[in-house]
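Q: Hi! First time doing this. I have a protein sequence and I read that you can turn it into a structure. Is that right? Here it is:
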Amino acid sequence: MEFLLDTADIAAVRKYNDIYDIAGVTTNPVILSRAGGEFLPTLYKIREIIKDKQLHVQVTASTPDEMEKEAEAIVKNLGKDVYIKVPVNEMGIKTIKNLKENGYRVTATVIYTLGQAILASSVGADYVAPYFNHICDHVGDAEKIIGEMAEIFKVQNKSTKILAASFRNTSQIITSILSGAEAVTLSPEMFSSMMNIPSVDATISKFSKAWSDMYGEKKIYEL
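A: Yes, that's right. Below is the predicted 3D structure, encoded as structure tokens:
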């Protein structure tokens, strides 16, 4: 199971990389614009923090030639191990095919349908990124679609991994994993929501009170 962090906020990358065993960081133009920094300097900082973990960077052009040029520039600046994110339409499929033929790592993104995922896998995408929440809002049953992706990739012996994205709540995250997603990318807020359980905090407070009643401010290593 891979957990990735879906943000370009440098402070958040530093914080959550320190707390969790994240597999890497995913970005897109919207996320980068929200972070407010310049494109390459922001990505350089993220790479410095996460070291050799995965970094997924999305192209912004609309034609295969331009997307391939952007991919070349991204790899030149950030290293050959970066994953190039390509939105999946017909031009995206052609771009993924060309990039894979030239040895790039590719994440097929903006996946709403089973057909998109199958076609992206057929041209060698390393990851497909179904947008769980968007599928629910615009297409149908995200749980069913991700489950079918997982089953088809297994039957066809495909190496393509499912990297589920775009979640509204923790239930959607768990559903994606149960449906067969090998990886999920989560915003900082979603990471925190998975651990924000008031009853757990209340129980921990009881443990602390029981200890302080016996030993005050002393710690175990001070006894």
